[in-house]
Specification:
CATH superfamily of the largest domain in chain A: NAD(P)-binding Rossmann-like Domain
Strand content of chain A: 15-25%
Order of helices and strands of chain A: HEHHEEHEHEEEEHEHEEH
Radius of gyration of chain A: 22 Å
Number of helices of chain A: 8
Number of domains of chain A: 2
Oligomer: homodimer
Helix content of chain A: 40-55%
Largest interface: A-B, 77 and 76 residues
Strand order of the largest sheet of chain A: 8-5-4-9-10-11
CATH topology of the largest domain in chain A: Rossmann fold
Shape of chain A: globular
CATH class of the largest domain in chain A: Alpha Beta
Chain lengths: 232, 232
DNA sequence: CCCACTTTGTGCGTGGTTTCACAAGCACGT
DNA sequence: ACGTGCTTGTGAAACCACGCACAAAGTGGG
């Protein structure tokens, strides 16, 4: 009885679990940096800000990687989650729209922590094209197809104004980029099989405002820490 | 620990609905700009990228604001959603961490579209303090308490490096800021009653990578591609 | 006034997600 | 070898979200 099965999991990890795996991964990497060797579901859950039962169930979808009475081996779990998320291979990313946000993304070191390589920066503004941002020369949007093909780009990031986003998305789709991260405040229309995720700063603010208003209204319950006073 | 299960919602709107209201609102405002007076749930749902039954159910949580046989009056619905989200009042926002991302946020006009006013920019780096960004003078982080009080800030945005985020959050909480939007890649620990939302760029990328990998694996079909032996 | 047509609001079945609670499993000390 | 203590993995229950399908309610034409 030896043999660790190389592919214990079956296809079909719940979407909610997938969304949490990166959080676990980051918490684990912090533990790893601190030299921790093993961690219990309780401790890891607390670091990740979730319920421990949820964490165990999430991990159980990947396989049985824990040891009862002990916990999980940090390094091994890091590897398993990385592999599941596809971070053991490299992904090339193109960013379109090198305004304030695009620049921030290009310079955001956290991206490349593992697996992601920013391969191409593109913009439509001839005043921006040619500039050097994060060590890359900004190319013209017209060369998108070329940039995608030459660099093997498989993930496209849209950081353009709302008006251009759909057009950029269309061109990404046409050259075969099937994963798009959209920062523009529009709903993108893409064919089946293309995966779009949206990050919308003002939507997050609006959700915060909703809850803040509810707190301020005749709530009856003040924030635990403060003395119920709340001015608007 | 925290034992406060009895408070999912008081008289309220499901969380999933709240998260979609801003999307509807944006679609409605686009219609308004185009001069459209009324819209059917079908049309609005399509513009917002959701199912029309879901949209109707979402709106039904706000009240009965539609007219059967006709649809919804755009302007009226804009007002109702705005009110529900708390956008009829003004929210003052402070941004801490004026690096690339903080700068992008400060300049992001979309914020102020309605209801949100960026009242204060703060940073710890003396090379940044004093600079003018988006028409505001960047203040020193030490003046956070003062800035919050003087401007009536009720929403705090954290765009600092990971290492400083928890500290900034603590200070926000201490001066009574109970709504925090966190861009730093850490899980913030805050007392009950404080609302934290997190936007994490690299997590989004990792989720995309997961799906991209799954597409690549079982590309044509999914079934018995590699169903070998499996022992545990 | 009545009828045909349109669109909302919602009851209900279905499926996914969270949480509890506990048996099963492993390590370690005696 | 065996019991003790701890932690995982997972049934089962509760909860929530989604979408179908249809009755209710309004509009407009004849």
């Amino acid at each position: 009885m030896i043999s660790r099965p190389p592919r214990p999991r079956e296809r079909g990890i719940p979407e909610a679990t997938v969304a949490r795996l990166p959080v676990y991964l980051r918490a684990l990497q912090a533990l790893e940096d601190r030299g921790t060797l093993t961690v219990s579901s309780e401790a890891l859950a607390s670091a990740a800000g979730v319920n421990s039962a949820k964490l165990r169930k999430d991990l159980s979808h990947l396989g049985s990687y824990g040891t009862r009475g002990v916990g999980y081996e940090v390094e091994y779990l890091v590897y398993q989650i990385s592999r599941e998320l596809g971070l053991t291979q490299d992904w090339s990313v193109a960013i379109v729209g090198i305004g304030n946000l695009g620049r921030a993304l290009a310079n955001y070191g956290g991206f490349g922590t593992r697996g992601f390589r920013i391969a191409s920066l593109l913009d439509a503004d001839s005043g921006v094209v040619g500039q050097s941002v994060a060590g890359l020369r900004v190319g013209h949007i017209d060369s998108l197809e070329e940039a995608v093909r030459d660099n093997g780009v498989s993930i496209g990031v849209i950081a353009t104004p709302a008006g251009s986003a759909q057009h950029v998305a269309n061109r990404f789709v046409e050259v075969g980029v099937a994963s798009i991260l959209n920062f523009a405040p529009v709903v993108l229309d893409v064919p089946d099989g293309v995966d779009v995720r949206k990050v919308d700063l003002s939507i997050e603010l609006q959700i915060l405002a909703f809850h803040a208003q509810r707190r301020a209204d005749g709530d009856g319950r003040a924030p635990a820490d403060r003395t119920g006073l709340e001015l608007t």
